[in-house]
Design a protein that fits this description.
This protein is mostly helical and 193 residues long. Helix content is 59%, strand content 2%. The chain has six helices and two strands. Strands 1-2 form a two-stranded antiparallel ribbon. A hairpin with an 8-residue loop joins strand 1 and strand 2. It starts with 5 loop residues before the first helix and ends in a 14-residue tail after the last helix.
Length: 193
């Protein structure tokens, strides 16, 4: 029998891919699965942050494939909008709400993430209108399937952020009722929105 060691349980094979490891000694990839059936699972509270990171990465991947002449007109702006979605999603997630000002600041960041998601959707629509692709993906820098995945990722982010906003309205109702929505206004000068 061999002695147990952390290396025998966790064997990373690729440091860039978090799912490319065999963990917990069972030969199965990833963390232990939930006992909840997939059809009854609900989105995690921080899924909007993970989706924002995937959206930013996907936007970068698509931006690299676009024509260079679009760099300053649309590509750079789309990447900036995706980066802002990620920044505001992470900022909202990092706020520990203990007073009305914290609740308002979290709501402000979620509003900004929602708004920049809408802006990114507008840029993607404009890109598709100006440089349509063929169904087979040949002769185009981005295929229709890639555009569709991009739009679906944006739509998913919008829905996730709206769900968190609705959840926060219920969770932090006592802060909103007591101090009103003006408490974040005093902090706006401290943050680059």
């Amino acid at each position: 029998p061999t002695a147990w060691s952390p290396a025998s349980v966790y064997k990373p094979s690729n440091h860039l891919d978090p799912h490319a490891h065999v963990a917990w000694g069972g030969g199965r990839k990833g963390p232990p699965m939930s006992n909840v059936p997939p059809s009854k699972r609900e989105p995690s509270n921080i899924e909007y942050v993970c989706n924002a990171a995937k959206l930013f990465s996907y936007t970068l991947d698509c931006a690299i494939k676009l024509p260079k002449r679009w760099t300053f007109l649309l590509t750079e702006r789309a990447v900036d909008a995706a980066a802002r979605v990620l920044e505001h999603a992470k900022a909202a997630n990092s706020i520990y709400v203990s007073c009305a000002a914290d609740a308002d600041l979290r709501r402000l960041h979620l509003d900004q993430a929602y708004c920049y998601s809408q802006v990114l959707a507008s840029y993607v629509d404009e890109m598709f209108a100006r440089f349509p692709s063929r169904e087979d993906g040949r002769g185009a820098c981005i295929s229709q399937a890639a555009y569709l995945r991009w739009v679906e990722a944006i739509d998913r982010e919008v829905k996730l952020v709206r769900g968190v906003m609705a959840s926060d309205r219920k969770r932090f109702a006592r802060y909103y009722e007591r101090d009103g929505p003006s408490s974040a206004a005093s902090q706006l000068g401290l943050f680059d929105i």
